[in-house]
Request: fold
Amino acid sequence: MKHQPAAHRLAGARLIGTGMAVPQRVVTNDELAKTIDTNDPWIRKRTGIGQRHILDESLSERHLAKQALDQAIQNAKIDPTQIDMLICATMTPEMCCPSTAARLVTEIGATPAGAIDISAACSGFVYGINLASSMIATGACRTVAVVGTEALSKIIDWKDRRTCVLFGDGAGAAIFTASDDSEQGCLHQTMGSNGEGWRELFVPRQESDLPADSDVFNGNYNTLQMNGREVYKFAVTTLRMMIDKTLDECGIKASDLAVIIPHQSNQRILESTREKLGLSDEKMYINIDRYGNTSAASVPICLHELMEADRLKKGDLVLFVALGGGLTWASSLWRL
Reply:
């Protein structure tokens, strides 16, 4: 689905605050090597990851989300009651009911804001900001908070080398509000999926959830199963497809972008894409070395770090891109 051109919109959207949270505990590659057959050079060469943050067993993705949202609200300098809608992107909710978003609305003091959870895996936050933009553009909401939060350590088999080296826990949040400038905000967006690829990345609860013709099952239900080779191929082609499509349909060049903020799936994929686009290092933000793959939290964590470093300014063109389980993908081009 594609956003309507600016000429048909009622309002633009302005980013007014960001926040992030990661657990205190850091697990290095060397620490993982003590329990599984791996080592730091092997992990870094294939993924770019050097460490990841892991949540205490007594806490959940909701606790991280609240910290990120509280910081975003503080940075936005608003009262939480000004938030009309809270969108929470997560594939690791505490419960299927109630939604994480509903509990967060109360915990951050935003009652009676609307609350919805999005389950789009690593694409979730970009899906969320696309929805936020549409709600603001149509006048349905004035101020929308979007948070991506994950406790992936809860669904990882820590004896499965194929997955445990890749993922970490974290949360990132952003708050958007209506702008009188219709050229400010989301200029172009895509959201897509291909359910035929579900078997490449899934969390089975029981035997009937297993694909009949797949050998990726690690023997433990309620843990993440991944066909790394197929997911890698999907990521390589889809990431470039989304970027090329955005540039083509918006009539801009890669060099016009202030920065691309991609989901942190694999450093080799990101750097290869950057090089093929002819961009300098600072034009493709990468922090997977410090956090690993945090799914829906990765893009907003990147955004917050860029904001904190004062690397983004009003008028900049920023492209958000993500892809994940489902299989799903999403892009969002913003003028800040």
Notes: The first helix runs from residue 29 to 32. Confidence is low (pLDDT under 50) at residues 1-7. The domain at 1-336 is CATH 3.40.47.10 (Peroxisomal Thiolase; Chain A, domain 1).
